What we know:
The protein has helices at residues 3-8, 13-20, 42-51, 56-59, 80-89, 104-117, 222-234, 253-266, 270-286, 295-302, 355-363, 379-392; strands at 26-28, 60-64, 67-69, 93-96, 121-128, 143-151, 153-161, 183-187, 192-195, 199-204, 210-217, 311-313, 320-323, 327-331, 347-351, 395-397. By secondary structure, it is α+β, with helices and mostly antiparallel strands. It has 3 domains: 3-217, Jelly Rolls; 222-286, no CATH class; 295-406, Outer Surface Protein A, domain 3 (Alpha-Beta Complex), CATH 3.90.930.40. Helix 7 (222-234) crosses helix 9 (270-286) and helix 10 (295-302) runs antiparallel to helix 12 (379-392).
Amino acid sequence: MTEFSKILSPISADLFFSDYYERKPLYIPRSGENKFVNLPGIDGFEELLWRHESKLERILRVNHRGNYKQIPHHASGKDAFRWAIDSFGDGCTLILNGTDHLSKEVAEIARSIEEETNSKVAANAFLTPANSRGFLPHFDTHDVFIMQLEGEKHWHLYDQRENLPLDRQIYLIDQETVKDPSYKYVLSPGDLLYVPRGMLHGPFTKSQSSLHITMGYRPLRWRDYLIAMVDVIAESEPRLRESIRPSDNSPNSEDVEKIFGLLSLKSESPYIQKLSLERVREKFVSQLRTLPGGHIRNLEASSMVNMDTKLLKRKGCVCNITETSETVRLQFPGIGLSSSDDLHPGCIEAPIMAGGAIRFIAGSDDVFTARDLPGILTIDSKIDLLKKLVREGLLVVIERNVSQSCI
């Protein structure tokens, strides 16, 4: 069972994508079983505030009924940590943005969602005092998983919605137009709620304070794919690279028709379609952070890799493979050690003859050795490839007494 499946349990991932995704909310009560015990509680949230006090001006938002309070600048002599706690005592919601950058456990759950949705996840933690409302009914331009960590939070969801909005389609809701909620949920620790983008929702607390984390993401959309396709076609078609003069009030309708005809013709090419999808996938993987765990120890072990060394692909390493007639490129959220290669961190390029071995490594979930790699590479070339991938952070050397939790 994947980590994503564990998050949704007992609902299957297939059922989620077929019946709920982008369509309607999904509420999964856990009957008192907290599935998120490894994530920060209220005490852990307080510790994150304290530990990262120097960054609170950038990562902390303080809200009361939809209105934000200005965090005092450190030059004012005010202690940001104490100010945040005081604000919570005054009935404000504390929002810690980028919690996946502050907690390894949160980052690992975010990565499991990224792997399933091909979307970059932003994790934000919300701490709301009892008998309070941080936000009035509103909608988001991203899908969101809500994980209740401590206390209780009441959620009202409304059939009023903007259908799959883009980022620029966000706007304030006239609260007088908000009708009675269509769904009412009370989230307890361990409960999960999925809210599709564009659905109006308004959370609040009653007798208990509440801490929850939202996992928000914008999925790969047809819009993103088509934008990438236009860029790919423009690389070989100078007509698309011509300028539109500022003096033109609008492009000539005849020219527009010709451009669309050209795009329609070129987009029929399977090669163009494949390359466009690769570009979108490449952009997604390039945004993923390297997760911590055993990198330093594996740097030390990389030089000792031989034909019998047992290796495992690092958990959470999403791989993207692109090929030309001569080379194969493997992209992943790696360390990106200094080299003369003009490549992004976590990206290696090899002769096309290494394609079989690289595809095997990227798709492997089990322990393997150099002997298991398919293809026509010599054993020495296979070992050199594996050493590089250990150093770059894709592979982990399995050693005696090294626990899987360090992988």
